[in-house]
Description:
alpha+beta
Amino acid sequence: MMRVVLPLFLVSVLVSCAPMSGTGVSKDDNSKDASELGHPASTQCRDPRPMVCTMEYRPVCATLVSGGTATYPSGCNACADIVVDSWTDGPCEEM
Length: 95
């Protein structure tokens, strides 16, 4: 019985914690869709910030509150960092 309960429990935890981020993918509960903000390419982070993100690698370029940019592995990872204001799909361009 324990073998059935534990995997079902883990599946329910993973499904409830899995962020959905990225343009063209269901959005994360902690970010507003770009069209809601009037910016076609950016997604705004909002509170509460995510505490757990999946290991999905879909790089995003985050705009920092201080004005700089940084590449994060996913939109969820970007919004989990308090110094991030918003993000766009794809890694940041190197200068």
